[in-house]
């Protein structure tokens, strides 16, 4: 995988300074201890409150630096990629932020973190500082493990600790509150690909048809490899496993669920995953939701994790309290999507259905031709565009096929108007709306239907801005409709369309359409997909 970086050794310091230059980092600063001491802290920490410090290896952003600010962390100690920070860095963070109220260290349950933060706590106590440490081990992937890993639930511990500190609670009370909350958390991850910690030549351990359940946030292998399935099935697997892990004593407890992006899942898929969770049995017990958002990531891991936390009044209040860090997404009651009534829309079928067997046969054959060419047209479009031209034409064909019994086939102008209405309702992409424009104008025309189609094409060109020679579907459609109006022959129209479509392969530059944004060398010898679709449609109808 290609990455934006200079050297692996400078990734962390350069990224932290970039973060401090951003709007999210305006209220923060760093200790002047690079490269060994990478501490991000509040510019003006309130030393009258308990200082809350966390950290660990980098590569989990926004954790941990992204959660520094009022209401959450006082400071974050950042190690190298997936490596615990050194003891002195943790001590420096304690000394820089801690007053009489003392300091709470929130530590993920990994050996390196426990040892380095633990020794730092001992040294800070020897220097006269009050220090408590809470270990977070929320991962349930390995149920028999004596040392469950600290994963996304650690961010919830940051939130609970920050809330207690801002309330002015003494250190012992803050620590006990966070320990209690950490004991109420359970997390499980799922990934389609593991991560790459900037190791040249690294390949995924997962096959194309595999997913991994219960993997760690450092690329550790998961508890199980499972077959790739739909998003709903994979989410159900995670949710059911979490629910099965709940002890009987919490069967009637309310929960908040955290949907965490482990790195590179697109936002559209994260939103889809939340919808998938809403249809699992576990969702009935989740009264609140946090995310979907990146909270505790693993570089470029293509996966997500679910965290459950048992709610009581104090924890609910703590998680809902506003905070300064922008990376905290907030907690909201889980609810059904709000739906407003559709306004009354004009009917797509303003005319009564009428029959014409010849017209019906043409429509049925045309639809079959476009559907059969869906994949090859998509492949062609993928060479110069976004690869959906075939699906656009095939989708329109399917909609027209579904409406055949409602079409006014005996009246060409009424039929063209109705076809325009169907396309405006269902057809996507620019091709769909352009043909809707053409058919609408043709339907309004008083000329014979062949001439009306030419008038419709003129209106399409005026609206779309393309003309013959611009390397678009117009190069096939314009000569085809002219030939049809002149001779009335489908064979003549098909020959003209093929000549026009083939001509687009020699046009070095596209002046309209998606290909206009593509360098000339990428479109050379490639026919325009829209023009090719028109040519294939007419050739099929003409029996060629």
Automatic annotation (TrEMBL):
Q: Which PANTHER family match?
A: TRIOKINASE/FMN CYCLASE (PTHR28629), TRIOKINASE_FMN CYCLASE (PTHR28629:SF4)
Q: Which PROSITE patterns match?
A: DHAK, DHAL
Identification of the protein by name: DAK2 domain-containing protein
* Sorted UniProt keywords: ATP-binding, Kinase, Nucleotide-binding, Transferase
For this protein, the record's SMART domains field holds:
Dak2
Source organism phylogeny? Bacteria, Pseudomonadati, Pseudomonadota, Alphaproteobacteria, Acetobacterales
Q: Which domain of life is it from?
A: Bacteria
Enumerate the spans annotated as DhaK domain.
7-328
Question: Can the keyword Nucleotide-binding be found in this entry's annotation?
Answer: yes
Q: Which InterPro entries match?
A: DhaK_dom (IPR004006), DhaL_dom (IPR004007), DhaL_dom_sf (IPR036117), Dihydroxyacetone_Kinase (IPR050861)
Q: Which residues form the DhaL domain?
A: 357-543
- A UniProt-annotated Pfam family: Dak1
